[in-house]
Amino acid sequence: MKFFSQKNILITGTSSGIGLEIVKLLLDFPCKIICVDIAPMPANIISQEKVSFIQTDLSQKENLDLLFEKLASEFGQIDVFIANAGFAYYEKLQEPDWGHLEKIFALNVFSPIYSLLKMQKSNSEVVFCITASAMAKMGLAGYSLYSATKAALDRFAEAFRLENPRFRLVLVYPIATRTHFFENAGKAPLYFPSQEASRVAFRILKGIAKGKRKIYPSFLFRMSYFWGFLQENLNYFYQKYTQKIFRERFR
């Protein structure tokens, strides 16, 4: 994957799971890796000369603004931005708790969209990749809020691509991944089927290098969602109609 050579690559959510596995794979390439997470990273990773680590809470706007100031002053142009940070609740949703809702939407939805718009303004040639989820396409019991955040990203990306066809926005749709992610969600069960984080990370990098805009690490999920893909293809014609009107309105 020579695509990543001599590039500045930023990944969020790198302390464990998919994000950490992406970093490990990128260590084999001559590139600069900028890791961002609220939690500390393994010392043997951040001690590498090509790795820089920024510890911050990405759910807060002021922290994102400071992050982008730091990126501009210390690293210059970011070529690939992988917005992987996120978390889930596994719960029976009952209580009307505004803070509970705001917390998950701030990190899972607002943060990557805000970062995308900041990147678009500074470098329209960037490859911007967001880790969504198979739950963007299919809600699962216990994950009503998490599913909602990932579905929001999916609909956003679909419309944003129509509005900005030259901007390279990539979404990834992993199935359940064998990491601590689901344990942290609230002792959540690991649904069948599942994949290793290293496998998902490899598919993400391979998809980016190949120019994909949608990456499905699980072939089984891709096949099981056949009718959904058919519907998406049927939607294409109406979406092109709205794109034509949009271009006339916002010339």
UniProtKB/TrEMBL annotation:
A molecular function (GO) term: oxidoreductase activity, acting on NAD(P)H, oxygen as acceptor
Name under which the protein is recorded: Short-chain dehydrogenase
Lineage: superkingdom: Bacteria
Taxonomic lineage of the native organism: Bacteria, Pseudomonadati, Bacteroidota, Cytophagia, Cytophagales
KW Translocase (keyword) present: no
Family classification: Belongs to the short-chain dehydrogenases/reductases (SDR) family.
Pfam families hit by this protein: adh_short
Matching PANTHER family: BENZIL REDUCTASE, CHAIN DEHYDROGENASE, PUTATIVE (AFU_ORTHOLOGUE AFUA_4G08710)-RELATED
Keywords: Oxidoreductase
